[in-house]
Amino acid sequence: MNLALWIAAGLLAVVALAGGISKTFVPRERLREIRGGEWVGHFSGGFVKTLGILELLAAVGLILPAVVDVAPVLVPVTAACWVLLMVGAMITHLRLGSPRFATLNAIYLALAAFVAWGRFGPESFTA
Fold it and tell me: Which parts pass through the membrane (predicted)?
């Protein structure tokens, strides 16, 4: 179970890192041209960059606290926050008629819920 939780957290961290880098450093106009990025046209550049920074922090928060053993409770807290972020992403994609991306967000949500459940519960770092 511990290995599965590490793999899930690692996958989410990679997704968060990729999304965070693109939202933070790629211009909004360029993001809008990419398939699945149409949603950025409905939000301000500041909002998109804020999401990107939150995703970069999530990438760090899903892995680093456990690796360095400093406040490892941040791993499930970060995963729980990722669940909330994915709810918002799913709503946005569904409103804009992109069920495929909403489904992808649902998969990320399920992975994050698994990490939050596992790290708060049976495979807690504090146990």
Answer: 6-26, 47-67, 73-94, 101-120
Q: Which amino acid is at 7?
A: I
DSSP 70: S
Place of tokens 């939150």: 54
State phi, psi for 119 to the nearest 5 degrees: -85, -25
- The pTM of this model reads 0.92
Q: Determine contact, residues 73/127, Cβ cutoff 8 Å.
A: no
d(CA 127, CA 121): 9
Sign of CA dihedral 91, 109, 119, 11: negative
Please give the Cα distance from 71 to 74 (Å, whole number).
6
Inter-residue contact 94 to 102 (CB < 8 Å): yes
Q: What is the pLDDT of residues 24-77, one digit of tens each?
A: 999 999 999 998 888 999 999 999 999 999 999 999 999 999 999 999 999 999
Sequence ranges of the domains in the chain? 2-120
Q: What are phi and psi of 50, to 5 degrees?
A: -60, -45
84 and 51 Cβ atoms separated by less than 8 Å: no
As a whole number of angstroms, the distance between CA 50 and CA 98 comes to 22
